[in-house]
Prior knowledge:
Mean pLDDT: 79
Shape: globular
Largest sheet: 2 strands, antiparallel
Number of helices: 5
Order of helices and strands: HEHHHEH
Oligomer: single chain
Distance between the termini: 41 Å
Low-confidence stretches: 1-7
Amino acid sequence: MPPRPPSAHDPAAPLGEQLAAIIAQLPADKLSLGELLDAFGDEGLLLLTLLLTLVFLIPVSIPGVSTVFGAAILLVGVSRLFGRALWLPARLKHKPLPADRLRPGLTAGLAWVRRMERVSRAAPAARVRRRAHD
């Protein structure tokens, strides 16, 4: 049986393959924020949480930012806890996003994801080799 092409909703596929499949399936003109969140699925929510927490690594505190980002992280966490889709106000969920601007950003993010995948795969393999020599 031939191997299946990567799918955006295949949880067994590495995140890089899922992201590449999402980029390939983007429409030419626009898509809504809700459609984008549906395409990313649960892994996308976890990636979103990771991106939202990066703000807290900045040594300079900007008043109000921690409240907004913390509330967004809380919403993602609650949606994951109860196994529900992330709730967004209809105005935000149906907001059109230009795909021609989104594609380069996702492609740049894909390069970073692939780097992280290489590092995360190499680290366990190196530990196994080191234990084998001990």
